[in-house]
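Okay, any thoughts on this one?
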Amino acid sequence: MLRLAPPLVALAGTLLVAGAARAETYHVSPRGDDGDAGTDGLPWQTLQHAADRVQPGDTVMVQAGTYRGFDLRVSGTADAPIRFVAAAGAIINLDNPETPDGINVEDAAWIELEGFTITNVSRSGIRAADCGAVTLRRNRIDAVGTWGIFTGFCDDLRILDNVVSGAGRQHGIYVSNSGDRPIVRGNQVFDCAQSGIQLNGDVNEGGDGIISGAVIEENVIHHVGAEGGAAINLDGVVGAVIRNNVLYENRANGISVFRIDGGAPSTGNTIVHNTIVMPPRTRWAVHVWDASTDTTIVNNILLSEHDTRGAIDLSRDSLPGLRSDHNLVIGRFTLDDAEPVINLDAWRAQTGQDANSRVATADELFVDWRKDDLTPKATSPAIDAGDEAVAPRRDVRGYARPVGVAVDIGAHEHCVGPERCIPIDLPPDPTPTGDHPRGGGGGGRPRAGGPTQVVPQGCCGGGSGPAQALALGALVVGLVGRRRRGTPS
């Protein structure tokens, strides 16, 4: 049940908006007492007590210490979101009282969760379901039972600058069901059983089964997919932009665009300025299947150490509307998984694509790819070789593009020194379009449904920029054993 803001009341002839002007800042500490006032000097003790009392506009400041998680089912508003902000050292290491997750946000909107460390919970570090305009920012999630972050039926979701590792059964970040306009940006995801980032519309759970208008950018994903699922896995995803991501040492495909559970084929997606280096035992850098038409694949680095697999695996029913060009690739491609694979010249002849693409090697391109430094060396053929028409304003680190006469291919723009490596901010994200009166969206809910190393800095040239209880069969869409999707050889 949502808690509504208090109504207008008349007092001494004056109308007052009770609650609208009374946004509060509360404090929680392990040394506090839920019977106190929740002030800085007299903090509450439990996160659940705070979650039970917040109203639109309130902020909860969480002091360092260990906590049981919390279940939140009250909404803020566009002008007065509810915020939980954790200080360094604020750790959730026990499930919340209602679900087997660290934090559960449900039937709620206009919520911001920031700065938590969440570890050793049964299912998800953070779960957000039947929600809207939820922002998850700068959280650290590790060693969780099933998913790092799980969302379902959540419109206008923002998953920003989180570090997610150790998802024991499935994906690091899982955006599921018919939630539109998610933004997944600036996250580091590694050491997860299945996909790093999975988007699945999943028509079987209700709604239209389509995720539309997603942006997936500036993420670094490595060492995922040993049990199946691409580093970035898209099923029933329409009109997404996938750009400026760095993917390496992943065990299935790099980026997969397909349809299994989606309400429609994954069409109209744009894959640009990604750097993908696949290890020896793996699949393809980019995999586009199941009538995933109108796909753009431009300005990417698509390499592989596999003996026979390589840059792009495309089904012939995905050819209509394909635009692929200005990529630096290993010279191996396939149509309909045909063997033997074909080289770049044969790919051009059969598809009419990649006229301006060329074959390149990791030794030519990168400073030290064997140590996961995928920044371009000074002589890299990626420099000034891209198509500026599709280029984002900045690279994976947040540095402005272009630096030279044209944009560079891949996720990094080559620059040396502060005079040329100029940080810029992104334009403001689009304002959520819905009122989100009861969260996101709509159709039924998803079925209830030790720290590892931090991502090496070298992969992005010094940082990412400015900036289990049950795994239910219906949610296991990591593609293990289903057709060809991401199962390691």
